[in-house]
């Protein structure tokens, strides 16, 4: 599937980005990808496998960050070849864009970096689909400037992701008005259902989370107009090396996506 075909598919129907927070190991990655591919086929749903080769914004200097770019891209390439899933991963520096684009179908810009002009332009110049997460410090209408930066490269293949806004200390809230507001910028909108229940730095040396609220927020976001949903999912979230408290159990993925598909069907039938 080309970038143009992927973007066209996600512009006409629902889609999901799913996978572990970090590319912990080949075993975790392949176990998750196999299950995700099976669910995607069963539900006839466009699913992009996600996984980060480097989590550069961890709470502590001792926190697990990932396998690094070379090893991480090897894992993602194996997922594509083995299961036929498109893949998405983050970049943090402009010079990573072209290298990552050789493997990734979608390049993701982390929320904390969503205003970095050089990073957005470098990503846009790859011609890949871009997923830019709205910073926890930005209003949804502020993303118009992000859209302008990316489209200045001639790349129109852009998704915008809502992932909650800072509310006091160690807490995030989601304003569901964000979905239609960001959609007004002319881009498909994704809702990050797992990072939105994160409690940033909430456990002192790492972030906490309230995964029990993932279904509630995901359903609400779909009803509010989200075309896609982002879900970090893990075979054993309590043992995940990164963002376990807000990750959704892999075994429960199909049930949640079936619920969301029911809601999406109402939207796309209207």
From TrEMBL:
Pathway membership, UniProt: Bacterial outer membrane biogenesis; lipopolysaccharide biosynthesis; Carbohydrate biosynthesis; 3-deoxy-D-manno-octulosonate biosynthesis; 3-deoxy-D-manno-octulosonate from D-ribulose 5-phosphate: step 2/3
Principal location listed in the UniProt entry: cytoplasm
Location of this chain's protein in the cell: Cytoplasm
Record-linked Pfam families: DAHP_synth_1 (PF00793)
Annotated catalysed reactions: D-arabinose 5-phosphate + phosphoenolpyruvate + H2O = 3-deoxy-alpha-D-manno-2-octulosonate-8-phosphate + phosphate
Any one biological process term the GO annotation gives: keto-3-deoxy-D-manno-octulosonic acid biosynthetic process
A cellular component annotation (GO) from this entry: cytoplasm
GO terms for MF: 3-deoxy-8-phosphooctulonate synthase activity
Superkingdom of origin organism: Bacteria
Keywords: Cytoplasm, Lipopolysaccharide biosynthesis, Transferase
Enzyme class label: transferase
Residue ranges constituting the DAHP synthetase I/KDSA domain according to the UniProt record: 15-257
Keyword field contains Lipoprotein: no
Its EC number(s): 2.5.1.55
InterPro entries tied to this protein: Aldolase_TIM, DAHP1/KDSA, KDO8P_synthase
Family: Belongs to the KdsA family.
Protein name: 2-dehydro-3-deoxyphosphooctonate aldolase
Provenance organism: Desulfovibrio ferrophilus
Taxonomy of the source species: Bacteria, Pseudomonadati, Thermodesulfobacteriota, Desulfovibrionia, Desulfovibrionales
Gene (name only): kdsA
